[in-house]
Every structure is written in C-alpha cells, then in structure tokens.
Amino acid sequence: MDPKRFTRRLIALGAAMFLCALVFVVTLFDAQIVNGDDYLAKSIRTNAKVETVKGTRGVITDRNGKVLVSNRAVYTLNFDLSLVSSDELNDALLRLIELMHAQGVEIRDILPLSQEAPYVYDTAKGGVRALVKYLVSLKWMDEKNVDEDGLPTSITGPALYLRLCSEYGVSEALPDDTARTLVGLRYALASARLNGSSVFEFASDVDVALISLIKDGSYAGVQVDTSSVRVYETDYAAHVLGYTGSIEDWDDYKDKDGYTLASIVGKSGAESAFEEYLHGSDGKRLVTFNDSGKVTGELYSVEPKPGSTVALTIDIDFQEDVEQALESTVTAMTKADGIDRGAAVAVVQVGTGDVLALASYPTYSLSTFRDEIAALTSDTMQPMWNRATQGTYAPGSTLKPLTAIAALESGATTVREKLYDSGKWVYPGYSASYTYCWKRSGHGSLNVRGAIMNSCNYYFAEMGYRMGMDTLRKYYADFGLGSPTGIEIGDAAGRLPSQNEGENLAPWAAFGQANQLYTPLQLANYIATLSGGGDRYATHLLKNVRESGTGALEYVYDAEPVQTIAMSEENLSAVLAGMHDLATDGAVSSYFKDCIVDAAAKTGTVQTGDTKNNNGAFVCFAPYDDPQIAVAIVIEKGGTGAALASTAVQVLNAYFSNAAANTTVTGENTLLG
Q: 3-class DSSP state for residue 265?
C-alpha cells in the first residue's frame, strides 16, 4: 500500500475521532455545566416526589413527670384528588369503599349529616363552619343564614343531601350506606380543594394487611402515609387533658407556621390550650425512585420538628384519688335516693394558683369517647361538660367567710362586736321583709368568729344590710368572683349579685343567696386567696415546657399575684379561726376527726327552689397554721354542705398522705419520652 495514502487515511480517521470526542465533550459540558441545573430539575420532576414527614405531637405529663398523653406511630390512607380524572373519580372511590367495607375499616366522615336517612344535621363530629363555607362557595346559601349552632337555616339536612347527590353524580341505584359514604368522601375532597389541598386522609391506624391489599390492587388515588395517634396513659383527668381532632376551618390555621390541612390540632382541654407548644412542624423529603417505584435516594430533606413536652400542674395520682372520692360520694347518694346528680371538685395550691386536681362527675374516657360520642352527647347528665370550670352555682354559706372579711375591713363591724341572733332577721323599717336563721330559735349573742362557726344567717344578713350591695360586690370581685380565674382551658365568669333600682338584696347576697353564681374553681381560688393572706393568683394548669429530646426548659410558669387584698392580721385571724372552729368543734367536727391534718372549713346549702333537692357546697383549706391547698366541692342536689364533709376529708388525706412521695421533680437533664 502507498505509505502516503495510508498516512492520509490515518489522519482523516484521527480527525474524525477528534471531532467525535469534541462533540461529546461539548455536549457533556452543555449538559452538566451550562444547563446542568435545568436538566437536573427535569430529572427530579420526572423521577422524584416530595413527601411530607409529619412532626410528632408533644407529650403531656403531670407535675411530677408522669406521662399522661403520648403518641403511637400508625399507617394512614390518603386520597389524592389530583391523581384521578374527574370522570373516573366516583368509580375509583366506589372501588375503595367496597374494599374498606369488606375489611370492616371505617372511612372518616366529616360531613355533618347523619349516617342514615333522613340525613339530618349532626353537630357531634363538628365541621359546621367548614360546611357553611363550602355551601357559600357554591352559592347555595348566604353565610348569614345560620342558627345559633351555626347550621344553615335556608336548606334542611335532607334537602342538602339530595342536592349533594346530584352535584356529585351519585347513582340512585347505589345502596343507601354506600351512597352516603360516597357523598361524604366527595364532600371531604371538595372541601379540601376549597382550602387549597387535593389530599384527604380517609383512614388512620390501618394494619399492614390492608396496606398490602391497597398496593396489590393498585387503587387509583390512594396513598399510604405514616402518622401518629394519641395514647392516653391514664383514665383520669379527661376534662383537663382534652382531645385532638382534624382542622375544622383552615382559615384559623393557614397563616400559622407548621400547619397543613391534614394537621391534627387540639380541640379541648390542655390539648387546645397548649397547642402552640404541643404542635410539631412537618418536614419535607424529596426522594428519587426508579421505573418500578423503588426509592433510589433522598436528595434533600427538611427535618420535622416534634412538639414540646408540656408539664401540667396536676398530680395525676392525687387527681385519681379525688375523682374516686367524688364518684364514691355521688353514687352512694344516688343509690340511697335514686336521684341522678352531677358534681365537681377543684383543688388549688395556696400561694401559686397551681391547679392540683380538677374533677367533674360524671366523666368519660378519652381512650374510647370517639366510639361513644353519640351516647355521650345525648346523655342528659352531660358527662363531657366540665362542671368544675363551667358549672355555675349559688355559693350558699361558703361565701360567709368572704362576707365576714368584707364587713371587718369595710368597718361595718369589728372582731369584738356581738350581735344577738333571735332566729329571725327583719329588714329595718319593713317588717314584711325578713329571713330566718337556719336555727329558728336563734344562736344568741355571736361575734364574727362564732357567726362563721355557726353559719348564722341572722348575723350575715345584718352585715349585708350595713354594707350594701356595692361594697359586697367590690370585695367579692377583689377575690376573683364574677370573672374568669385565668385557667388556660377557659372557665365561666360566673355572676356577682345584682339588684334592680329601689331594691336591696344585700342582706340575702351576704350569706350566698340572691342571684349570684360561681364555679367550683372560683370558690377554691377565693379560699386560697383568703387563707394565703390576700394574694390572689390566676389559676393555671401549665407548670413548664421542655424541648422534646433534650429536656431543655423552654418556659416555666412564674407569675406574680394578679391582685393583693389588704387585710389586717386581726381581722383575717378571726375569720380563719371561725372556719377552724367549724372543723374542730362545729357541725362537721365528727368528719374531720379522721383528717390527718389540722384543717378549716365552711359548709354551704344552696337553695334551688326544691327544698328536698338543695345543692350542697363545701370549702376548706389545710393545714390551718400553714395553708397549702384550698378545696371546693359542689354536688348538685347534694343536700346540706355537711354531707360533703367526708369527701373533703378524703381529698385532704389523699393529698397530705402522698405529699412526700410526690415531691419528685424532673431534673434539668432528664429526657422525656
């Protein structure tokens, strides 16, 4: 072969290879350097997805670190509207409904209509505000056309159901239960979309067997996720702890960090009051996967932030003792006379406002109440109503120590003045207006100490007459009556005594009658203020907040008194001595001989209009010479306050017998689960 010709061919081949290499290098440079970010983004969009990593809700403990509410990891099922076309939506949902029914798994329903015909409005599950918002968006109603419960007045429940069936194209041939479930799911997805989401969590805490069926059956629109559910480590303090639920109105949370439409939030009690601490923040995870769906890597992530650990002021062991004592007393009364009755106990720490126990009877179980919600809400005894904070009652004679201090401090009387109780107090200058002392023969000559011990209506009616309503109202208000106590879960304000122009009801208001109403918690806090020397604290349930995992303190409750009422030592001593005399030598001394600490008390019989079914009220504090706790008890139709004395002794004994054992506090570096 001609050497020159061979050389030319070799040069040409080399040039061609160089050009190929050059094109490859240029292409590679363009792909990786010049347009690398764009190609990477396209690759990610094609072979990756963003997953939400849910933050765990914070733990709730009692004052000694005992866990009251924790979490358990579970699988959840979501339906993503964006993954199914509108033409195929009903078929996809019906296929899903068939599977869930076959497996006996309940599908979450947020439509506030009954599950069966005639499909009337049902407020037990909430969701009324969300429904109204949805109907307004469809122009089916005006937002002003609602009743006192927030329900639409322009369209009935049955009419709404039929209209929704038409709107969603639900076949009339479907069985009633299937049609109702389909309407509920369609409504939930439409409501989610209205709030900017395409996803609805329709089942929680499902087992692996169901997940396998979902994956093997390729159910369109269904996604498996992980979450957590609340675990209640105690059967007590239900009204204090409260419960969680789904967001009802996204407008309340859309501007808050860390929330999505699927977030679980506190609905009542401490769960709601301390939502800002308990709610964790969801994380984001971007994962890549291959054609078979297998995850091949995690490109980046935003770590979820768990909620903080919230320590309450209650002592759960003491709370248990209080609830059991209250239940025992009420059930014994009901067994004796056949009368159903409610009751409440509030225990407040003197000098801090810490709520140590808060019991309401009847109560309910947080572990099972979702399955029993229909029965609980229809129960005439209202077990889900917190009587300790929301029940308002006339105080009866439990108010007399406060009237006494008002009379002494205002100058209406002195510790040395004695009045002669003839058994009937007559309004000066108006013989037609009078009140009898409970002892019709009268108590004879009494000073303020004796009047408290003997609960003398004559004495306190005279004090009320001397002071007048304005003075009474001022002192009652100073001690926190007639206004919320500050407790984070909320409480009723109660009502100070009042009168019409030209009337003078002060003589009757002074011994706890007239038209005044207070909660058991208000009564306990007034006794804590009185026995504590006049420092009135806001009642509270929050002790401290710790960072999850590290246990580092984020917040410690340390509030000053909201008010200090000036009282002379002589006046205060006389009033407290009268309460002490009642417990040691008076009408309830036979009960208090079994009390392990020296205590002071005051009974109250609250007129209800039915003399056979008066409410019973009782207040006390202990120890007498160094007050630590104040207790208030109210039992509806409980008769005389003296009948509650045994319960009060049980409460005091439970606290002071366990006080030494329950002084353990969580250390600075202790980890909480």
A: strand
